[in-house]
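dumping this here before i forget
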Amino acid sequence: MKSTIFLGLIFTLLVSVNAKVGRPGPHAVVYKTKADYSKYVPVTLSDDKSKIVSYPAPQDVFTNGKLALPTALPHGFWLDNRGIGPNSCFIKITYEDYAKLPQAPSPEDLYKLIIDKEPFTEMYDLGLRNLLKDGDINQIIKKHKLKGYTKLI
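structure:
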């Protein structure tokens, strides 16, 4: 009986620790842009910005059944909900319109729709998103503590 309880406690502890630190997940990326691109779909460019190397399928612009629009944060920052990085940019199609497409346009057609190849003025990686509690990101920004995180741009 004691060994069963002990093993149960060990199992619970391992599951709890694994949920907190052992499982990778999406990172919290916050950014500022030259203009408000929050309604536009991001795509990823090659390092030389000559072609699109990654773009979503229309059904991939959702997170938990809602459009994956970025979340507005203090001081003009945005929290990414789609998966952007330093080589991302935005196309002239809104999330709403893109989600209605029967299929994604070709990379060549999407490239012609780029608004700005270098839209970001700042971008930071705050680490694993699931380790941040509600309000943590707002406090980091409000207290000007972004310098303590990985600067991407």
